[in-house]
Amino acid sequence: MPPLAAVPNLERELDELYALPLAEFTKARNDLSSRLRKAHQSGAADEVKSLKKPSVVAWAANRLARDKPKQVDALLQSSESLRDAQQRAIAGTASIDEVNDAAAAERDAIRVLLGFARPLLGSPTHIEKLAQTLRAAAIDEAARPLLQRGRLTEELTASGFGPLEAVKTSRRRGDEVARAARERVTLLRAEARRLNAEARVAERAASDAAKALQILDAEAKEKRAEADKVADELAGAEEALRKRR
């Protein structure tokens, strides 16, 4: 029998490991590590033995990934849409309504998942931490695949993802986005002042033009009345001339 026969599909075994109740995780992890070592897969055995038991909140998120994959996918898609809307808003190609709608869609996706998780957690504190974990995992490149596979091991927050190095990049990116947003606000304020000044000039010109139009209209009506009067006199004179003939 070849050495790998003892653990024919490690990825499937890991999925099953993280799907277990928390109370069974440690024993099952150690058993899997022992099987790998017996199969002469020492490197994999060491890696499995070092796997951290998920926290209660991470375990609940993993359960959602397995039990409600469509809803988790909806959260990931809504988070991606929100990030896209925010970036386009900074670039000036998306409205604040688009950003607000995308944010509302993300909140709704999280609210739906929390509804399924309440029987698993119960504690309001755990529910709040789960909401933060779901939101954070959905926007972090390192955590997204862990959530999709149901292999999170710890709680995450939007401002810091614990030991995940990706968060440092996310924070820097957030600083850059904030700076770009401030610069755009400054530019938009200057543009608004310029356009307001031009609008006032145009409004005054329009007002002057309207007054001039009223004067010209009155003059035109007066000339028309005079022209009609002369036309009537001409018609009368021509009629009188014909009768004399």
Molecular structure report:
It is a single chain. By secondary structure, this protein is an all-alpha fold. Among the domains are: 3-49, no CATH class; 56-164, no CATH class. The protein has 9 helices and no strands. Helix 4 crosses helix 5 (69-90), helix 5 packs antiparallel against helix 6 (96-121) and helix 7 (124-139) crosses helix 8 (143-149). The longest helix has 79 residues, at 166-244. The termini are far apart. The model is unreliable at 1-5 and 160-173 (pLDDT under 50).
Summarize the structure.
With 245 residues, the chain is mainly α. The protein contains nine helices and no strands.
State the low-pLDDT regions, or none: 1-5, 160-173
Distance between the termini: 138 Å
Q: What's the mean pLDDT score?
A: 82
Rg on CA atoms, Å? 37 Å
What would you call the shape? rod-shaped
- In percent, how helical is the residue content? over 70%
Task: Summarize the main sheet.
Answer: none
SSE order in H/E notation? HHHHHHHHH
Strand content: under 5%
Compute the number of strand runs: 0
How many helices does DSSP assign? 9
Return the structural class.
mainly alpha
What's the quaternary structure here?
single chain
